[in-house]
Every structure is written in structure tokens, then in C-alpha cells.
Amino acid sequence: MNLSQLIYRLSYPNPKTEFGIILTLTLFYPSQTSYLYFTIFAGMMIFFSIRNIWISRNVSFSRFSRLVLAFNLLMLTSIFFSSYHLKSILFFADLLLVSFYLIFSFLEHKDFTEYFDILLYFLTAFSLFHVSLKIFPYFGQEHLFLGNPIYQGIASGIAVLIAFSRLSARVNTIDGILLAINGLGVFISSSKASYLGVVIFCLYMILLKRKKWIPFIIAFIMLTFIIPNPIKKMVVYSITKDPYSANRLDMWKMCVDIFKDHPVAGVGLDNFERVAPRYNFKQKKGPANYFKAPRMPHSDYFKLLAEMGTLGILALLFTLFFVLRKCLAEDRFDIIKVIILYILFQALFINLVFKSFFFFLLLFSIKALSEKRPKFRSISIQHKFVLTFLFLSLYTILYILPFWSDRLIVKSENRADIAEAIKLLNSAQYLNPLNHELAYRKAVIYFNLFKETSLIETFHSSLDNIKLVQRLNPYYYKAYLMEAELYSTLPAKQMKYANLEQEILEPLEAAQKVSPFYPFTRLLKAEVNLEFGNREKARAEAIAALDIEPQFVRALYFLHNNFNYIPDPAEFQKRIDDILNLSAQYQPNPGTYLFELFSLPSTNTPQ
Questions:
Q1: Distance from the CA of 375 to the CA of which of 147, 167, 278, 344 falls in 20 to 30 A?
Q2: Angle at alpha carbon of residue 30, lines to 29 and 32, rounded to 5°
Q3: What does the pLDDT look like over 356-394, one tens digit per residue?
Q4: How far apart are CA 296 and CA 404, in angstroms?
């Protein structure tokens, strides 16, 4: 045994401990959306990667490494075409660090079965925790980890498949208990996707190994829809009330439309949610036509199409060709192959591949599948220094500085002194210059100052920051609405001039392009046109707002009061009463789309 191998064997943590630490953070961290989480997660991955680089004399380089590097290169290329660069860069950085960690981690192929046993025990603890939380909600919320019951169900489903594969090879009590606990985890998640995936791939393994068990699983499926349980309840809810259950085709069509407008590299990694209002569709169920804009396309394949364009298609085809060829080769009962196919199957109907836990597990499984005979490349001391510097630089620029910037934002919110708050925001902007939120916050402060003082310097400071927001994130429609409102304050301050109407309407037109199905923008345009004497345009814009949402209360009042839109007062009042009765059923919270839609004219116009 050489010195490098000796250091590797004696160093802490060992590979299996590393694996457990990563699983703990990706499964049991309550908030996986904060800067703190990503800073901790990235720091952990960088620490492990640098450690593995320095204790290794050689680096394993296989088809897996080439696949991952090619995929990351395509994602990096797409960033240059992104309209909102910050989100794309941060999203890519997380994936890149996981990719590098697995590339520089050498794991004995004979040990991979033990890793999946560790995974089974971790997921069983995860399922058991959620089952107990369902029975005794002592944290006040049932979905504390992974943030979504669907993801919780899919994670428990992975454990079901591992336990089921072990039972198929040798029936024993322990694996039966593990199967039962994780199966219960699938049920209490009320996730149709995880239940369907578990059924399909358990059948797949039965056909390969235990065909005599087929009647039992068929009976189990039938009982699921006879005996009352969360899965049956969720299916009924999806059919009767869920506005998106039957709209996946609409969301996938949105992705196709986005691809048509951005065919080369899409709209940028993780930017689907920001462009969704522009491509939204009329909801078939619910209290309004456009009260929701999809936050995700409910398919990782269509996500790649919309966010990476042709580059995403190439990345997807290349990956599927590599992975499916391996999975459909000999020994299809291999649990590693089953887990890969299970995750790829779920990715067709839900966005999960790029979540920390599932991305790590998918890449780890592909590595386990493809590194039976890895080739090694020597790594010199100079290369180790270069890689260490690269990792630390990435961590500082993409994680430490944004995290520090976020802390300064929080501090600025608690400062009563405006000058001190702006100073903190300027410092935060210096640390994270691509964050549009900082410029928007400064624009709000200067806007409020202008309304109070009428100082022209505060007007221009607010306008400059609004324009910066629009450059950094063209999809942020609130910046356009604020620009229009800023100009709208000028007449009250005796600053009216010839071109003012156009100055107000231009940002509203831009906001309408970003979110064409947002009826409040149309009504704002109607009010501006009416104020400047353009009655026909005002009427047309208000009717357009009503066409988008026929239950838009303020638009009805606007047309009724200014254009006698509904001549019969009794008919008008009945229509308003019907809408208010609907509003009482849903009881929308202030500031939400439905609240603004059902509000009477006395309520402030949404900004």
C-alpha cells in the first residue's frame, strides 16, 4: 500500500461517512431555499472535494466523468444567453460542485451495495420521522423536510424499492419492516407520483425475479382505491379541484412556446418561473382564469427544453443514451439501475432531478453504474493547488459574498435611518451586483422620499435604480409598474409636461409584455388614458382587463361608472354580489391575486 492510499484509509471522514453527512444535510435540513443552506452545502462539498484531491495521487477518469463534464459545459454555455444571469449562475454552481465532488471521489465498486444499504437506513429514518409527524404534528407543520410532500413521497419510494429488491432476493423480517415503514411514508405523503412509480418498478422487479408475487401486488393496488387512505383522497382531489392535475399538457406546451421564442439556449437555467406569466394558460378549475402562474413545468425534460433550448435537448439525449444503454444491459434487476430508472421516470412528471438530494443520488447512482473499470490520471501538486484555488474562489464569489450580501439586506430592513439603510444596501450591492432585489429596494426608498420631499434628485435616483432592475431582470414586472407610478406622481407635484402620458404608458406596455394576462396592468392603462382624456382607449383597456378576468370587480366599477357598461343597476349589483359571494368562499389573503381581483374600488391598486 502506497502513502497516498494509507492517508486515504486513515483520514476522516471516510467515504461512507461523507455519504452519510451529505444525505443528512440534503434530507434533514428544514429550509433548502435559503442562502444559508446553499452556503453550508457548498462548503461541505468543496471541503470534501479538496480533501479527496489532496489525499489522492491519481484521479479516476471514466465515461461518467466525461458525461458529467459535457453536461456541465452545455449548462455553462446556456448561461451566456440567459436574461437573468444571477439565478442561472447560482443554480449552475450547485450542480457543478456536486459534479466535481463525484468526479474526484474514488469509490470501490464492490462497496456500492453498502452505500445503498446506508441510503435505505437514512430514508427509513426520514420516513419514520414523517409518519410520526403526521400522527403527532409537534412542529406545527407536516412537511418540514424537502419542503414538498411529493418529494418526501418519492424519497420514501426509493427506500421501498431498495427494501423490496432485498426481499425479492431473500425474504426476511428486517427488510419487511423497512418496506412497511417506507411504504407508509409513501402513503402519508399523499403523492400520486411516488405511489405510481413504486407500483411500476416493484412490478418491474417482480417480473424479473418473483413472478408469483404479481397477484399480491395487483390486490394491493385494488385495495388502495377501495379502502380510504391519503392516496385515494389525493386522486379524488386531483380530479375534482386541483387546477393543475389535468394541465400538465398545457404546462408542457408552455415550454414548447418558450423554446420557439428562445430556440438556441432557452431563457436561462432556473428561469422558467420568471417567464411563466408571459406564457400562462387559462385555468380550467378554480376561482379565476389566471390566478396562478406555474412555478415549474412539472417535468425536468421540458424544463431543459425551456431553460436550455437546443443545448438542453442535446444534454438530455446524450445523457439518456448513455444511461439507458447501461440500465437495459445485463442484470436489469440491479437496484442501482432500478433507482436510476425510477428517478428518470419521476422526472417526466415532476421537477426533482435538480433538487440537492435527488441530483446527488442520481449522479452517484450513474457513477456506481459506470465505474466498474475506471482509468486513472495522475494529478501533480501544481494541479492540486490550481484546483484548490478554483474551488475556494468559486465558494467565495458564488456563496460567501451572496450570503454576506443577504445578511446586509436583513440589517437594512431594521434601520430606521434612511441614509444608513441605503449605505447597507450599497454595500450589499457591491458584494452581489447581479441581484436585482437590491436595486429594487433602493428604488422604493428613493421613491418614498420623492413623494415626501419632491426633491428631483430622489426622483432620478429612484428611476436609475428602477432601470437597473429592468436590466438585471427583464422579467420583473413590478419594476415596470413602479416606473409608471413614479411618473404618475408628477402631476400632483405640479411637474406635468407634454410627454408625460407616454412616460407613464411605456413601462405599463413593457409590464404587459412580461405578464400579458395580469389584468391589473390593463386597468392601470385604462385609468391613465382616462386621466389624459383618451376615453376610447380607456374603455378598450378596461374591457380587455375584463376579458382576462370577467370577475375583476374594479374593472366592472370602472366601466360602469365611466361608460355605463351595464345599464341596469340591478343587473350590475347582482353581478358584483355573485363575485363577492365567491370571494367569501375562498377568503383570499390581502395582497394576493384573488384579493386584488375581488376588491372593491376603495382598495388600493396593486403594485
A1: 344
A2: 75
A3: 899 999 999 888 887 766 667 777 788 888 889 999 999
A4: 28
Give the list of residues 6+ apart from residue 74 with CB closer than 8 angstroms, or none: 308, 311, 312, 314, 315
Write the CA distances from 205 to 158, 159, 582, integer angstroms.
13, 14, 50
Alpha carbon distance 38, 26 (integer Å): 10
Torsion of CA 580, 582, 583, 585, to 10 degrees: 130
Burial 61-83 (b: 16+ CB within 10 A, else e): ebebbebbeebbebbeebbebbb
Distance CA 348, CA 353 (A): 10
246/257 Cα distance (integer angstroms)? 19
Contact 92, 76 (CB under 8 A): yes
**Cell matching residue 92:** 449552475
Task: Please give the pLDDT value at position 604.
Answer: 40
Other C-beta atoms within 10 Å of 418: how many? 12
Q: Are 123 and 156 contacting, i.e. CB atoms less than 8 angstroms apart?
A: yes
Report pTM.
Answer: 0.85
For the record, the C-alpha cell of 324 comes out as 439507458
Residue-wise pLDDT for 256-301, tens only, equals 999 999 998 889 888 998 999 999 988 877 788 888 888 888 899 9
